[in-house]
Specification:
It is built from two helices and four strands; from the N terminus they run βαββαβ. It is of the alpha+beta class and 72 residues long. It has a four-stranded antiparallel sheet with strand order 2-3-1-4. β2 and β3 form a beta hairpin.
Amino acid sequence: MVQKVYDVKGMTCAHCVQAVSSELNGLPGVKEVQVDLPSGKVTVTSEQALDRAAVAAAVDEAGYELVGGEAQ
């Protein structure tokens, strides 16, 4: 399993968390998504490393923005 932390800009409420989680959970191989709303950090656990562009596209589809590099 691979765990990566991403920074997501624009999330402000539980609906935001649900939208981002739903889109990321739809990516192949994703097993778990944890969102820390106050910090904007999203932890994704997957079977193998995810393509950053795919993660960015999923976050964008939810209406938010993946910013910076990976936090960890």
